[in-house]
Amino acid sequence: MVRQTPASTAPVFPGATPIDLPRPYLLFLGDADDTTFLKTGLGLRDWAPGLCVAEYRCDGARASLGLPSMTPVEAYAAGARALVLAAASIGGAIRPGWIPHLVAALEAGLDIVSGAHDRLADEPRLRKTAEAFGRRLIDIRTPPPGLPIATGQRRTGKRLLTVGTDCALGKKYTALALAAAFRARGLAADFRATGQTGIMIAGSGIPIDAVIGDFTAGAAEILSPDADPDHWDVIEGQGSIFHPSYAGVSLGLLHGSQPDMLVLCHAHGRERIVGLPDYPVPSIGEAVALTLQLARLTNAAVRCAGVSLNTAGLSPAEAAMLTERCADQWGMPVADPMRPGPAFEGLVDACLG
């Protein structure tokens, strides 16, 4: 299914103008052997397919997004104008083994777009090559200047935030799907990107995990400013309040977003927190209760509309039976947003009800 890239109206704050990204893209998959660390590539392939010319990987890497495989020279000839780091590493580092491939892209005429924590220009070989060939090094994970601390003041308009029982289980996809569904029903709705991939898709946003801790909630307030009473900001969640590594970012985003509605994202079959096997994934009841309790600090009327259930790997029939069973078990709407149908429309109804 081809999805249209959701429109987004950039909120008004310093540095929030849409990012001028060279397009279309050659997606660099690095040395990944599977798609676990290809969230950026998967997001661009699924939500901005018209921007993805081809994929390119290190020698011996086995991961693929199913796109044509091209060298930087071939991709440039096919129309690509930037290489995107579609792979991620632990901690957001640019791996040393990637550098020769990135240099080759610059020499072929491509700019480089990165969502890594490491800055492209901090690598001397990349900086010198970019200067020599007149190419741009674009770091998406750069917060705008002048972000304020949070005020906690209520804002007009409506807000929905996707939250999760863990990280890497569909918060971005859920927010994109819900924003598109709201607009399909004739509602004013904007997807608000808080991560590098979402920003590449939407063209604007704030990389929340790159914001100094004191300003995280303030950045979330600025990201979804005052709006018309019937306007929806659908905000991309990050991390999980149950993940020991990322709970701080998640909590700041939760408080600053002041959501009227939450959608809890969960991956079927996942029992342990990603990367931390000593920590179990919370139950749905526990996750809903604690998230609502924390969210009430800045919005006492917040509600949970239901659960976005990642059923990847199941057949359509298996997924339909699972979502129906979980809806009965958890007492709320449950749907996989990547499987359109009555269950997802029911979740949309609950969000708007």
From TrEMBL:
InterPro entries: DgcN-like, DgcN-like_C, DgcN-like_N, P-loop_NTPase
Limits of the D-glutamate N-acetyltransferase-like N-terminal domain: 64-143
Domain (D-glutamate N-acetyltransferase-like C-terminal): residue spans on this chain: 149-342
Stretches of the chain forming a coiled coil according to its record: none
SUPFAM superfamilies registered for this protein in UniProt: P-loop containing nucleoside triphosphate hydrolases
Gene3D superfamilies listed in its UniProt record: NAD(P)-binding Rossmann-like Domain, P-loop containing nucleotide triphosphate hydrolases
Taxonomy, superkingdom: Bacteria
Protein name: DUF1611 domain-containing protein
Species whose genome carries this gene: Sphingomonas alpina
